[in-house]
Write a structure and sequence with these properties.
The chain is mainly alpha-helical. It has eight helices and four strands. Helix 5 links the parallel strand 3 and strand 4.
Length: 202
């Protein structure tokens, strides 16, 4: 699990719930779960007192789930693994694209990825049980869930369609700026003329 845990947009809470539910169904289905950037939440009083006690899989005696400090992507994926994530309004998170580029199974809730065919491991937004089914599928069919590098070329800065799209956006921004500048100048001229007329009458 690799989320910053700085706000609700990219939080480990839903993935933790998925892992805990998976553990309850089949404790031996996975070896270890590492919550990267977990230091951001594990010492929070509300989490410790109200949430963590309900996560059976987190009990130290089971040695299954570990909170880890911030780490580089390469360090996190040295061994065979799957990445379980959750986002809100961050559908093209860099970590997701890195995982797909490296052909690492990514269990995600990104509609942007789903819409381009990266949907085999997509779970429905906040559905913990759907997430459980997708992580079970990834663990049992690892080799068939690792060939997405071609599809993410759709998001590449080298993709001609993306380059042309950005050019159009920049050109439109420049055109809008020029139009607004002309309107401001015309408005300023009118204001000066009106001020002069008022002054002359007085």
């Amino acid at each position: 699990i690799m989320e910053p845990n700085l706000n609700f947009c990219k939080s480990s809470l839903i993935p933790i719930m998925i892992v805990d539910q998976l553990w309850r169904i089949d404790p031996n289905s996975f070896n270890k779960c590492y919550i990267v950037n977990g230091d951001e939440i594990k010492d929070k009083n509300y989490f410790k007192n109200n949430l963590q006690p309900s996560f059976e899989s987190m009990r130290p005696k089971y040695e299954k789930v570990y909170f880890c400090p911030r780490a580089s992507f390469n360090d996190c994926v040295k061994n065979k693994c799957v990445i379980l994530c959750h986002q809100c309004h961050c559908e093209l998170n860099y970590v997701y694209l890195e995982a797909l580029h490296c052909n690492i199974p990514l269990i995600h809730n990104s509609n942007a990825l789903k819409n381009v065919g990266i949907d085999e491991l997509y779970y429905n937004n906040l559905s913990v049980f759907d997430g459980v089914e997708k992580i079970k599928f990834a663990l049992n069919n690892y080799e068939t869930c690792t060939n997405y590098s071609d599809k993410i070329k759709l998001f590449s800065s080298s993709n001609e369609n993306n380059v042309n799209g950005y050019i159009k956006l920049v050109e439109k921004a420049i055109e809008t700026f020029k139009e607004n500048k002309i309107k401001l100048e015309e408005s300023a001229e009118v204001s000066v003329e009106e001020s002069t007329e008022v002054y002359t009458e007085e």
